[in-house]
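thread: overnight batch results

M.L. [08:02]
morning all. the overnight job finished for the chain we discussed friday. pasting input first so we're all looking at the same thing
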Amino acid sequence: MTPAITIEGLTKQYGALTAVDGLDLTIFAGETYALLGPNGAGKTTTIEILEGLRRATSGTVRVLGFDPIADHRALHQQIGVMLQEGGIFQSARPLEVLRLFTAFYDRPQDPEALLHLVGLDNTVGTPYRRLSGGEKQRLSLALALAGTPQLVFLDEPTAGMDPAARKVTWDLIKGLQADGVTVVLTTHYLDEAEQLADRVGIISRGRLIAQGDPADLMHTGTRATFSAPPGLPPADLPGVTMSETQPGRYLVEADEITPAIIADLTAWLRDRGVLIRDLRVGAAGLEEVFLELTEEQR
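M.L. [08:03]
and the structure it wrote out:
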């Protein structure tokens, strides 16, 4: 697989503060990679270095084979950047902004087609300041696609969107995936990372602490969860501990969750006339894994 991004020993310091601490990371061409971390973990600094907006203190960074600082102009013809907010004149209208931005690129998209793609046809005459938060986000996504990029950086792409607009944005990102575009995603919506990312990287205190397919990260093999009526006593099963983490939701832990343990657990519940629901082996979701791994920093 061809690397789209290579980071080796990346460090960024602000005086006595080390924001990124010897980070090593490879993102492959055509994959969608979600970079996650709590506030202050160093993910925004890392992304801004990749975009050529900040200089690294030390280490090596290559994006599509370019040095983001030395080859800034050449790199920016190949990438798209979706900012979470700002950068647009308040009185400008969406189509005007798109016509301006597409003029900067050697391989521009059609501005009217982009406006239609993100569902903003009815905002042609609306000043930017009067757009809703979700509409501003969709315009920002359109601007990131203005130069037909090989790689796009999406910073909180669905922040402020209603569920319908969020689904449209997810479909657009999946369309980029189908076209072979590399997507680097930062988001606080962990279900978004689960749905869209081929791989997830979790950073804490400027270091990569976990990486992999979302399903692999969630399957720990040492826990199971299930729903049942609240107030059950702890299960008297050898090698197993059971606790009620919230009313009606139970956590079962063992050195390894085996088929025999699941069979014993369901038999124990049957003997008490309890109907089990939503049984899941592994973490309940990527959010649970994220919270557990980043607990020290938070």
